[in-house]
Amino acid sequence: MAKFFADIKNENGERSFAAAFWALFFLLLLYVLIEMRRKQRYIPVVKRPQNDSLDFRKKTIGRLYYDKGDHLNLCRKMSAYFLEHVRNRYKIPTAELDEKFYKNAPGQDRYSRK
After folding, report:
1. What does the alpha-carbon distance between residue 48 and residue 27 come to, in Å, rounded to a whole number?
2. What is the pLDDT of residues 19-69, one digit of tens each?
3. How far is the C-alpha of 110 from the C-alpha of 92, rounded, in Å?
4. Residue 52, CA distances (Å) to 49, 55, 63, 66, 112 in order
5. How many other CB atoms are found less than 10 A from the CB of residue 76?
6. DSSP code for 37
7. In the prediction, which pLDDT does 28 show?
8. What is residue 111's DSSP assignment?
9. Among 79, 70, 50, which Cα is nearest to 61's?
């Protein structure tokens, strides 16, 4: 079949049809080979859902204490929470808040006790 197209010549004696045919054939073959490979789908980046429950609880409890007006109770609870944090994180005993506690407290080099 290729010989048939190679023998066809136009009125000037050129084989332009055969050259165009083979060029088209090879381009089509190249296109088919390139498109045969598996295409990857775009995977969108999914943001992690934000945990709003802690923020909601924090605001709700804050409003509750603000509306109640019991600031002394809130201050006692905040200091107890802070001391528990120091005990658990830094392993410093907080039974007595004396000079030994302040000496071992984290960040004591930044703040001087007067």
Report:
1. 46
2. 788 889 999 999 988 888 777 788 889 888 887 887 888 888 888 888 888
3. 18
4. 9, 5, 16, 21, 38
5. 11
6. S
7. 94
8. S
9. 70
Lookup: tokens for 84: 């528990």
How many whole angstroms separate alpha carbon 24 and alpha carbon 21? 5
- Maximum CA pair distance of the chain? 111
Contact 1, 7 (CB under 8 A): no
Q: What angle do CA 72, 75, 81 make, to 5 degrees?
A: 145
Question: Residue 24 is which amino acid?
Answer: L
State residue 10's pLDDT score: 65
Taking only the tens place, the pLDDT of each residue in 89-111 is 888 888 888 887 777 776 655 55
